[in-house]
Amino acid sequence: MLNRKPHPDQFAFDLSKDAALERMIEARVAIRAENDAIRWRFRLILIETCMISTLVLIAGLLLNQPISLVVRGSLIVGAGCFASGVMLIGLSGLTGHLLSIYRRWRQR
Questions:
Q1: Considering only CA atoms, which of 92, 60, 86 is closest in space to residue 74?
Q2: 74 closest CA partner among 47, 50, 56, 48
Q3: Cβ neighbours of residue 14 under 8 Å, at least 6 residues apart?
Q4: How far apart are CA 74 and CA 87, in angstroms?
Q5: What angle do CA 35, 16, 8 make, to 5 degrees?
Q6: Could you say which of 9, 29, 34, 37 has the lowest number of CB atoms within 10 Å?
Q7: How many CB atoms lie within 10 A of CB 80?
Q8: d(CA 40, CA 90)
Q9: Does the model's pTM come out above 0.85?
């Protein structure tokens, strides 16, 4: 990267010298990225749940099964898919938290 001098009318603003400010910005960015990742995981679970429930519903209707049986099966499959997805998100978060605690303990 080239070190260019700023234009004389431009205010010289150098953040590289303030390490505390950089750490604070990095911490905020990390928190925001983690929140976005959780939101995207939850969205993917919702999309997957809808897709699998719809596939079960369509398959049951195409096989000329009773509508009440098909709808009940579709709801059960959707609920199971949603529950397992939420459980996986929770377990992955818990594992990450425990690993960070372990790393801090090991660094002492």
A1: 60
A2: 56
A3: none
A4: 20
A5: 120
A6: 9
A7: 13
A8: 14
A9: no
